[in-house]
Amino acid sequence: MGRRERLAQTQLGAEGMDSLPALLHRNVTQFGDAPAYREKEFGIWQCWTWAEAAKEIRAIALGFLELGVEKGDHIAVIGRNRPAHYWSMVAAQMAGAVPVPLYQDAVAEEMTYVMEHCGAKYVVCGDQEQVDKVIEIQENVHQIKHILYTDKRGMRKYDHSQMNALDDIKAEGRAGHARFDAELDKRISEITYDDTCVMLYTSGTTGKPKGVVLSNRNVIESAKNSADFDHLNRNEDILSYLPMAWVGDFIFSIGQAYWCGFCVNCPESADTMMTDLREIGPTYFFAPPRVFETQLTNVMIRMEDAGKLKQRMFHHFMAHAKKVGGLLLDGKPVGFGDKLKYALGNLLVYGPLKDTLGYGRFRVGYTAGEAIGPEIFDFYRSLGINLKQLYGQTEATVFITVQPDGEVRADTVGVPAPDVELKIDDKGEIYYRSPGVFVEYYNNPDSTASTKDAEGWVATGDAGFIEENSGHLRIIDRAKDVGKMADGSMFAPKYVENKLKFYPDILEVVLFGNGKDRCVAFINIDLTAVGNWAERNNVAYASYQELTANPRVLETIKAHVEAVNKSVAADEMLSGCQVHRFVVLHKELDADDGEMTRTRKVRRGFVEEKFSDIIAALYDGSPSVSTTTEVTYEDGRKGSISATLAIVDAPVVPVAQHKVAAE
Amino acid sequence: MLDNSEGYVTEDGRKIGGVVMEMKNITLRFGGVVAIKDISFDIREGEIRAIIGPNGAGKSSMLNVISGFYVPQEGEVWFHGSKRPQMRPFEVAQQGIARTFQNIALFEGMSVLDNVMTGRLGYMKTNIFQQALWKGKAEAEETENREAVEKIIDFLEIQHIRKTPVSRLPYGLKKRVELARALAAEPKLLLLDEPMAGMNVEEKEDMSRFILDVNDEFGTTIALIEHDMGVVMDLSDRVVVMDYGKKIGDGTPDEVRNNQEVIDAYLGVSHD
Question: AMP-dependent synthetase/ligase domain: which residues (chain A) (predicted)?
């Protein structure tokens, strides 16, 4: 059977597919022996076909009924990407309950709030660590009736009166199927298109997390539209390694996987992700820019260790790829000689490199969440890897805009996704309306009302504009972060931060200057890149903190800031945002300390408050600042580190007085 | 002191069985130096038994006596109810005793997987020629042993370094690989020589958790040497304290902690 026929067959069952269990049933009937899930365990990829997976899911659902799960109950799922966790979510839906995946690295206090808010009576935990956390929060949260866990290790000694292994629940479900089959079938048949499919908590750069309620309609329509847009079919392979609590993972690993019927591959552990990526060679891939940055940094570091011949070959052909690779990918005309040379390069360099990276079979992939450096983006595209950008939100069931094939650029986020309407208000804030628009924030009508209006338009909170000739959307910054400098010119921190972050040496930047006469910045260095540089240049350091204070490091960073200032000065609108003074922070901004969200977005207000002493020093002209910072260790204990940070003055480009006032 | 032969129940509810190994009046001399002087104690099934003491107390010598590497001049070692004759190290391994070393003793050039596989040697019955030909029996045997090894790799969470040469690993991970190799032998008695030496706090915590998990999951009896008092007190069920080759204390961590002789040995005696 050819690809197209298979695709056509996938589409056949489109009618009446109004829930995940219905899609699962269709997949089992149409291609029950095709692989649905793979997970690497004990060094081997274990595989489940759709038929096998369906049996497991049904057994879990029966187990849920036996436990007393009722319609409308919430079932929290906390763990890494494993088939059993995905099954638990679908099983929850079968039983009429609402799955609520949570971030597994959240500390107990964060989890307490979310658990209390959603009122989950049942919790599926990955392992002992998560169970311990749930037990800890039970001191404050009392509604939890039963804890289930996947990994039995270390669990023997626990009080099992309200706890059980998922496998045991499955077995009990199987044993008791005669009693519960009818009830389960009844509950499955009662699911409607507008019932809740899943509830996902937004990480929230400000305030408490909000529970976004997504209906079956939201999930299935979004999955269908996006799958059509990129011609996804059941032959795709994806690697599921992003947090299960994140909407993207739900859409890719459940929504689209069930809609298209493709295979979800789960890595062995978080640390083996890169190896597993290489072994699976996904055809459809999603990663935040950070993953691509890290990979590129590693490639470059390894190339420096390679032999002379290899280095020359690499640089020669990469230069050629830079010239024509992107054009070839976009289907633009390229000379015959160049094509031939590209083919040779593919044989000698690009192909092997792609295999090493795990992108040998890469057909289409996305990056989103943050801006990606144009050089990084172009590097992958020039290799023939069809990497694109999309812009999305939990509230939109991911998709707001996407880049169509052939119209891919580093500086835009694409055109509105199918069935998505877009408008921009007079302040520049982006609004959208689509079938994917969320139902509500759970138990939070005020926030729902302030985000979504009566006509279904949702405020993104991002400021941007639509390019006139291409129709592509460009994002400037978070609307609330865009401010004004003292002289009235525009302050858009993200724009400058991203430019700086595109340097491999720089991991994170926070720019300040709203309402002030000039901008100052916090900078986090990237330990991998700078550490490697230090090793090569015989710069000795004993700790991250010591490395950040090294004068040569500061010198390098200063050069980057200077270059960025030049480029910022060239932008008429944002020339006021040049960095006058900066400091390289002595610690990495970290989610455990509350400085970032779990999805690694900086909590600007929090950082501003926490490091107010450093900001004050940046503005008052002092050459250095002594500071003590509280840090949280991985096990939740707190400590503090003190440091004296050097403040560096960066050269700025003088800008002619703005003409804004005259206009 | 607990001396009923039926065993006892620990604070956290684990049942400790009868005596697995008993040291009776052990004395070990190197020429004129007396490393161990007339020491007796026992190790019971399923317990974590620690031997502690300041530097030079004779801990490692004691462990070497248990593992059969040193033969004491006086005294007897009883293992599973019978007096142990003098034996060579591989015979000790065959009896079900495995160990890790204070100074890591791994095959540096080999991958983690291969290193752990060496722990399975005792379970390989095919000869070198069969293995070289890699036919039938040898292949099946390797598959079987690889499976056992993979379970241990999973258990100790070292999947990400499975194929990495040991020489490229940091210290803490090497220690974990050594533990993996010892576990691969499926020992009845596991001897750990300073498992936390040279580790940072986080690595120590990880290691402690793994030691507890091993004991809990496989029911392995563990005897360990350590001079980090804090770790030992949290981990072990019973502790033997040595100082200058003599036993100065033996009992539960609490008993040992309140033993005046132990306090003196560790903190020194005030002379006022």
Answer: 25-442
Q: What are phi and psi of B154, to 5 degrees?
A: -65, -45
CATH fold of A18-286 reads: Rossmann fold (3.40.50)
Give the CATH class of A483-662: alpha beta
Domain boundaries, chain B: 1-96+187-272, 109-184
Q: Can you give the three-state secondary structure of A501-535, one letter per residue? A: HCCCCEEEEEEECCCCCCEEEEEEECHHHHHHHHH
The residue type of A474 is: R
With beta carbons under 8 A apart, name residues in chain B contacting A271.
159-160
CA–CA gap between residue A416 and residue A420 (Å, rounded): 6
ipTM: 0.75
User: Contact, A429 vs A442, CB < 8 A?
Assistant: no
For the stretch A311-348, pLDDT in tens is: 999 999 999 998 898 888 888 888 899 999 999 999 99
Task: Retrieve residue B217's tokens.
Answer: 């999951």
| Residue extents of the structural domains in chain A | 18-286, 483-662
At A124, list the tokens: 């599926």
Question: What are the tens digits of pLDDT across the range B23-64?
Answer: 999 999 988 888 999 999 999 999 999 998 888 888 888 988
CA distance B251 to chain A (A): 24
Angle at A64 between CA A58 and CA A68, to 5 degrees: 145
Is the domain covering B1-96+187-272 a CATH 1.25.40.10 domain?
no
Residue of B10, B117, B149, B159 to mutate when probing chain A, most A C-beta within 10 A = B159
Which pTM was predicted?
0.81
Shortest distance between the Cα of B112 and any Cα of chain A, in A, equals: 13
The tokens describing A564, both together, are: 């960025």
User: Is the separation of the CB atoms in A42 and B147 below 8 Å?
Assistant: yes
| Chain A CA closest to residue B161 | A272
Where does the pLDDT of residue A239 fall: very low under 50, low under 70, confident under 90, or very high at 90 and above? very high
- For residue B106, give both structure tokens: 């791994």
